[in-house]
Amino acid sequence: MKVINKWGKGFFLYLFLVLIFPFLPIDEYYRSVAIIIGFHSIVTIGLCLLMGQAGQISLGQAAFFGLGAYTSAVVTAKYGLSPMIGLLIAMIIPAVFAYVLGRAIAGLQGYYLAMATLAFGFIVQIGITEWESVTGGANGMINIPQIAFFGESELRMYYLVWALVTCVLVFSLSLLHSRVGRAFRAIHKSEVAATSMGINVRSFKLSAFIISGIFAGLAGGLYAHFMGILDPQPFGLHESIKFLTMVVIGGMTSIWGALIGAVVINAISEILTVLREYIPFLHGDVDTIVFGGILVLIVMFMPEGLVPKSAAFLQSMKMKKKAARGEEDDQSMERKATT
Amino acid sequence: MALLQVENLTARYGPVEVLHGINLNVNEGEIVSLLGANGAGKTTLLHSICGLHTAKEGRIHFNQHDITRMPAEAVVPKGMAHAPERRQIFSTMTVEDNLWLGASHRMGKESKKDLNIEIESIYERFPILAERKWQMGGTLSGGQQQMLAIGRALLSKPKLLLLDEPSLGLAPLIVKEILTIVQEIRAEWGTTILLVEQNARAALSVSDRAYVLSTGTVMLEGHAQEIANDPRVQSAYLGHSHTAI
What is the rounded (10 degree) CA torsion for B205, B210, B211, B212? Predict the structure, then answer.
């Protein structure tokens, strides 16, 4: 586990926080917030691989999330399969969709890719809404079974979700340090130059799509079983943009950034909910305005995102300290020399 | 049979034909330069050879394979490396990562240890790259970037190395250094080299043979010395006399 060694302290801090969070003396409500953050993290880590690493924009990530959610919900609630098998199918179906979509739009870049994925997002959401006999249409589905992970409780769900987040995280970090990660970054920088290196650009782009689709599908499946009810509303453009915002805020080039982004956006969401009780005009869709504003500020003042920015800041602090110490050494040497 | 054989090659950009029936051979162990003014079609020819541009008509044989319509990523494993124009270093990746990318098609097939040894040999050959191992590619100077581009290309273990304008934007002294490196590469690795250049004098000084391209056709071909002495080349590219062609 080279990756874990490399991240060392950071990774163990992450594990520690994840393990103790449920035992912190806070309202149990925040445990379910943490579970939701887990779902979002799985999606954003995938999106970070696709967007931040391979450089392929997706405005339709919520569609894969939705596909995963509905797939797992339908096979468990309607056909009585166990939720664990449901989750597995919830990864396969979005992967197939990602493969087909990826094949279809392999030659597209930039704006065209954004438009194509946007269209895909709309098609999936409309498809879910209209296919009433299976998905329940706009009314949605109810009675989606819980996941039995050594019994059904929210605490167990919390650990299951964050165990999966950790798997996704370790997988993605390892991927980045492998030849695949290098190929992704090369494609991001220049597809022509990457091709000249003998990199099969199409197949790597396709695999980035599929991996991000699988992650989003997994998160969707978990979401469906956790909520117990589903409707098509949260799988549209609004949610896709929210995922995008999380990745951008955290820092597109950093997998940890995707995780931090998911935490920050959800935290802001919760703060707004609390504030609403005291400030009456915060009703309505204030979240969107706030997220939009944050996105603008980040792009203007911190385009590299929170995690790379703070990493660079820490690095420069270290350097300064070192330099200061170095000067002292020099001075003491001088003093010694003069005396 | 020549290592690289281009027969009657025609290439287009949309309706515009830019190469009109090019014939070109490169034998094993040669350094061949491809000269010509801006817009003569040098880079298009190079891109057609390495698969970045698909030729309209004609044949390209390389190392006993027909690579006419093969995409670039499939040509590389056949033993052809391309150090592109303006070097195309991955500027936000480290020097080390850039080098590893050169070995892309060999990863998974050959052991990491062997590849590591080869990367070390590139560092030995270009000590400045070893010093800057962990620096971003974009922070290197032009000459260092060119060395990185050549080193990266060598890591695909090519039989034939295509160099597209390695002298572009470099000071005369550095150009000389780079061209010396080109000769040394042939001597050390036995790599065959096809060198595209606008800097005709410098290119001819290290080449065995040369082709002069003019508006999409081969205007002249022959031994480097002959080409350098040709009055048409002298007037057009070397600036010895000022009479018109």
Answer: 20
